[in-house]
Amino acid sequence: MEWLLPKLAAYESDITILLRLLVATFAGMVIGLNRDRHNKPVGMRTLALVSLSAAAVVLSGTVFGEHFQQDAASRVMQGILTGVGFLGAGVIMRGKDTFEVHGLTTASTVWIAAALGITSGLGAWFITFTGIIIALLLLTVGKPLEYALIRMLGGPDQAGSEGDPKSAGSDQGHNQP
């Protein structure tokens, strides 16, 4: 096995890039699986591609030099987030005759997938994995927690707004986690 280490050392930067791209893809897939479970239009493959794309764009700067220029990296990230904003906007819908907005949580998952791709591309592993955990917690227990807090604080019962307790886990309404 020791004979392999010198050979792998020659490819250390390529292995690092591969790891970052794989982690970014994994981060997007995990968030996307939650959207798939709730039958939303943006799912595992879409968010994996968003996250992978963000990481690839961030990493593309590393192949042209050994140092990240702070201002160049910042411009790359701003461009990613601007483009992702348009993608996320495509899943937001407003009722024809109502002011009820649908799809905000799904749109926000596009943003978090891009952000996790950026953090993976930068090699910020703690931020990436902490972001995955927090995002999944919000997507899993955010809405029931929101409704419980609203009831506890004396607000209207949002969970029963459609008369169906099952709708508490959907991506509908303007009060989304």
Automatic annotation (TrEMBL):
Annotated region Disordered: where?
A: 156-177
On the tree of life, the source organism's domain of life is Bacteria
Membrane topology classification: Multi-pass membrane protein
Question: Is Transcription regulation among this UniProt entry's keywords?
Answer: no
Compartmental location: Cell inner membrane; Cell membrane
Which residue ranges does the record assign to the MgtC/SapB/SrpB/YhiD N-terminal domain? 21-146
What's in the keyword line of the UniProt record?
Cell inner membrane, Cell membrane, Membrane, Transmembrane, Transmembrane helix
Q: Does the keyword 4Fe-4S apply?
A: no
| Bilayer-spanning residue ranges | 15-34, 46-64, 76-94, 101-118, 124-142
What does the sequence similarity comment in the record state about its family? Answer: Belongs to the MgtC/SapB family.
Q: Which PANTHER family does the UniProt entry name for this protein?
A: MAGNESIUM TRANSPORTER YHID-RELATED (PTHR33778:SF1), PROTEIN MGTC (PTHR33778)
Q: What is this protein called?
A: Protein MgtC
